[in-house]
Design a protein that fits this description.
Layout: E1 13-17, H1 50-64, E2 68-72, H2 82-90, E3 97-102, H3 107-117, E4 121-125, H4 131-138, H5 144-157, E5 160-167, H6 176-186, E6 189-194, H7 212-220, E7 225-228, E8 238-242, E9 248-252, E10 265-268, E11 273-275, E12 284-285, H8 287-291, H9 296-308, H10 314-317, H11 330-333
Parallel strand pairs: 1-2, 1-10, 2-3, 3-4, 4-5, 5-6, 6-9
Antiparallel strand pairs: 7-8, 8-9, 10-11, 11-12
Helix pairs in contact: 1-2, 1-9, 2-3, 3-5
The structure holds S-adenosylmethionine (SAM) and iron/sulfur cluster (2 copies).
One iron/sulfur cluster binds near residues 254, 277 and 279.
């Protein structure tokens, strides 16, 4: 039941954004001067309802055999009653893994309910342990402690935990080693993400990227690491372990070492558009047909068609010349 795209990549992974809103204003994702009080966020009736998301997930499962779903946003925990959606998705036969990417700030309130609803894992984003820098990055005066409390709550609830750190040259590259040391001690896998040119609002420059090679050098200088095999084909993070241990870190190097050839992820936006690439300028509307009485078989046909025609490989082709001028914002499809 595999669906392959034009570059023979199967559809394996479904990422669902449940809201375009967020309680942070990270300058690389939703800069406060653009995402201000007058920003035109999606209205409630434009969002896919939980029933619509569930129905699409069932069709995706039956059509492509996906086993994994990741919930993201915006900040997914800003969506009211999210544990109810998790419970619905967890009830789908054959869905074995449900994960969520979150800024962690609301986990103290929801971690337990999410776990009980059937969530397996969370990836929590944190870019620094330095309070002053963190407040500057998140644009909302949120302290590091708030996120650390979220991580503790996830741990207490029994959720699997990974930490994501976006590294920007000259902004938080000095935090690479302190973050590595801290999360090694805590026993959580930390993944370093190269700063990417997603969306149109963060003013990205290649010069701002702190490359994978330099991240490895920094860590090697203090705690030697060695590469380890991927867990599965299409894993975006290259894995390393501290030499002589099974303590792991990962690096997601979308800019300096692209991995398009194994990219098997589809992304559903909160308003029901399907994106076949993080850097796409256009999504395919699934909400329209859903609300116009399309049958499950019709929806399956639409999804198969979209995926089989896919030939995206933006990161492999990225140059100044191919930089697209109108790309979907990260807060719409959630990374
Ligand atoms: N709000 C949640 C969070 O921050 O984890 C989920 C959505 S957020 C868009 C998903 C991930 O994308 C986060 O780990 C965030 O750090 C990352 N991200 C956002 N903008 C990015 C950029 N320009 N380059 C690299 N990663 C980015
Ligand atoms: Fe919000 Fe996540 Fe984007 Fe930061 S990275 S603004 S927390 S959606
Ligand atoms: Fe996949 Fe697009 Fe990223 Fe390449 S650039 S890995 S095709 S999402």
């Amino acid at each position: 039941m595999d669906i392959n795209d034009r570059l023979r990549r199967p559809l394996r992974d479904l990422r669902i954004s449940v809201t375009d809103r967020c309680n942070f204003r990270c300058h690389y994702c939703m800069p406060a001067d653009i995402f201000g009080p007058n920003y035109d966020f999606l209205k409630k009736n434009m969002l896919l309802s939980f029933e619509e998301i569930y129905r699409l997930a069932v069709v995706f499962r039956k059509t492509s055999g996906i086993k994994k779903i990741r919930i993201t946003g915006g900040e997914p925990l800003m969506r009211k009653d999210l544990p109810i959606l998790i419970e619905m998705l967890a009830s789908i036969d054959g869905i074995e893994d449900i994960a969520m990417t979150t800024n962690g700030s609301l986990l103290p309130k929801y971690a337990k309910a999410l776990k009980e609803a059937g969530l397996h894992r969370v990836t929590i984003s944190l870019d620094t342990l330095d309070n002053r820098r963190f407040k500057k990055i998140n644009g909302r005066d949120v302290s590091v402690d708030t996120v650390l409390k979220g991580i503790d709550a996830a741990e207490e609830a029994g959720l699997g935990i990974k930490i994501n750190m976006v590294v920007q040259k000259g902004i938080n590259d000095s935090d690479i080693v302190p973050m590595a040391e801290f999360f090694r001690k805590k026993g959580h896998v930390l993944r370093f993400i190269e700063y990417m040119d997603v969306g149109n609002s963060n003013g990205w420059k290649l010069d701002d990227v702190f490359p994978k090679k330099a991240i490895i050098e920094r860590i090697n200088g203090v705690m030697p690491i060695e590469p380890i095999d991927p867990n599965y084909t299409g894993e975006v993070a290259t894995r390393y372990r501290y030499k002589g241990t099974d303590e792991e870190i990962g690096i997601i190097s979308s800019v300096t070492d692209a991995f398009c050839s194994t990219c098997n992820r589809s992304r559903l936006s909160a308003e029901g558009k399907l994106y076949t690439c993080l850097f796409a300028s256009k999504g395919h509307d699934l909400r329209g047909p859903l609300r116009n009485d399309a049958s499950d078989a019709d929806m399956a046909k639409i999804i198969t068609n979209i995926w089989s025609n896919r030939n995206d490989r933006y990161s492999e082709e990225r140059t100044e010349h191919t930089k697209r001028s109108s790309k979907i914002e990260m807060s719409h499809i959630g990374g």
